[in-house]
Amino acid sequence: MSASPAPKKRVAILISGRGSNMVSLIEAARAPDYPAEIVLVLANRPDAAGLTRAQAAGIPARAIDHKGFADRASFDAALQAELEGAGIELIVLAGFMRILTDAFVEAWAGRMINIHPSLLPLFKGTHTHARALEAGMRLHGCTVHYVVPELDAGPIVAQAAVPVLPGDDAETLAARVIVQEHRLYPAALALIAGGGAALDGGRVRLAEAERDPGAALLSL
After folding, report:
1. pTM above the 0.90 mark?
2. Which domain holds residue 51?
3. Distance between CA atoms of 24 and 200, rounded to whole angstroms?
4. What is the rounded CA–CA span in Å between residue 181 and residue 158?
5. What is the CATH number for 22?
6. Is 182 in contact with 21 (CB distance < 8 Å)?
7. Cβ(31)–Cβ(189) under 8 Å?
8. How does pLDDT run along the chain (220 residues), one tens digit per residue?
């Protein structure tokens, strides 16, 4: 008698805009063997185009307008209520342009991930593509990491690299990186939700099966 498959992790995606990474995650999660289920999409902007895209995919999606709250803590409390009500186990930030309170981040420690458009720890913050060009980088890319109170400083789960080509500007480089983001984020979420990666002493420990070079999720 075969063992029953492990239940899928219940995932919420937080967005602020069009949600292109959200779409890649939703599409990946349609696979029967994908270990996570996208059950909720929340946006801090009522006009976020990603809300319509999520609803079209059959995912419950709603806005919690941050402008309607007196402070960040009140907004985060509203987020928390929605997440708890949906039984969320993992949070995925996908272009979510709000700084969360330390208390919220710590409450979700080890259960919230983000994707950043650089090879961290290089180029934390914004304007990463222009800064990579200014620095004369030959490689650039994106990083999936756990979220900690310090911005873009959490333990790294996976990275994907792209070459910086002669004649690149910030837009062409960004276009090359976003292709890798759409590949990397679903793979990293699957790794975490399926138990292939876990936090251990502030670093990400990969399960034995994930330690070979082909599972490193590094692309050129």
Report:
1. yes
2. 9-114+143-154+181-195
3. 28
4. 11
5. 3.40.50.170
6. yes
7. no
8. 556 678 999 999 999 999 999 999 999 999 999 999 999 999 999 999 999 999 999 999 999 999 999 999 999 999 999 999 999 999 999 999 999 999 999 999 999 999 999 999 999 999 999 999 999 999 999 999 999 999 999 999 999 999 999 999 999 999 999 999 999 999 999 999 999 998 888 899 988 655 444 444 544 4
Dihedral (CA of 14, 19, 24, 29) sign: positive
* Residue showing tokens 């992790």: 9
The catalytic residue positions are 116
Binding site for (6R)-10-formyltetrahydrofolate: what residues are annotated?
72, 97-100, 114
From the annotation, which residues make up the binding site? 19-21, 72, 97-100, 114
